[in-house]
Specification:
Number of domains: 1
CATH architecture: Alpha-Beta Barrel
Structural class: alpha/beta
Subcellular location: Cytoplasm
CATH class: Alpha Beta
Mean pLDDT: 94
Oligomer: single chain
Keywords: Cytoplasm, Schiff base
Organism: Streptococcus cuniculi
GO molecular function, one term: aldehyde-lyase activity
Low-confidence stretches: none
Protein name: Fructose-6-phosphate aldolase
CATH topology: TIM Barrel
């Protein structure tokens, strides 16, 4: 299992990099917009310094047309390094660009996946990661579990090296269901990870153990 953070907020990344077995950081233009004006590629370098060389970073193209996607992808790789994963939406132009970029050795995360068919095409195009949008599918009355299970089955049957990086989560239950469908990775906002530890029963159990040890041993440490 891989757990990734869907943010470019440096303070949040520093905080959760200490807590999580963090496999990577993902971003998109909407997430970048939340941070206001910033030197984007400088921020990517700062993120790399925080998460280390082995974790992955995923950066999305902005262009929608074939030539523009190629240009954006090459620019991202030039500025952020060859180990970057370029996020490309699974559209007709996106798929065409993926084929060319894979021949150039670019690491690709196929994104904006809402259907099984999109995912199947991305697998065949050689995408390293597939990013289906769990909550967005659910909002559109598309069964995200069915899509994820079908893609996981297709990867298994074909022996593909593609991994499913499920995205767009609003709660921990959705994350749990995604992993149950066989996805290899998820990316979520800090709010989802915060919620995972917000259950009062967790804090109460920790407090009870500490109090019992204090009573039994007369100290609050081992």
């Amino acid at each position: 299992m891989e757990f990734m953070l869907d943010t470019v907020n440096l303070d949040d990344i520093k905080k959760w990099a200490k807590v999580l077995p963090l496999a990577g950081v993902t971003s998109n233009p909407t997430i970048v917009k939340k941070e206001g004006q910033l030197n984007f590629f400088k921020r990517i370098q700062e993120i790399r310094e925080v998460i280390g060389p082995s974790a992955s970073i995923h950066v999305q193209v902005v262009a929608k047309d074939y030539e523009g996607i190629l240009c954006d992808a090459r620019k991202i790789r030039q500025e952020a390094g060859d180990d970057i994963y370029v996020k490309i939406p699974v559209t007709t132009d996106g798929l065409a660009a993926m084929k060319v970029l894979k021949e150039e050795g670019v690491r690709i995360t196929a994104t904006a996946i809402y259907t099984t068919f999109q995912g199947l095409l991305a697998i065949e195009a050689g995408a390293d990661y597939l990013a289906p949008y769990y909550n967005r599918m659910e909002n559109l009355n598309i069964d995200p579990e069915e899509v994820l299970c079908q893609l996981a089955q297709a990867i298994d049957q074909s022996g593909s090296s593609s991994k499913i990086l499920a995205a767009s989560f609003k709660n921990v239950a959705q994350v749990n269901r995604a992993f149950a469908c066989g996805v290899q990775a998820i990316t979520a906002g800090c709010d989802v990870f915060e919620a995972a530890f917000a259950m009062p029963s967790i804090a109460k159990a920790v407090d009870d153990f500490a109090n019992d040890w204090q009573v039994a041993q007369g100290r609050n440490h081992i």
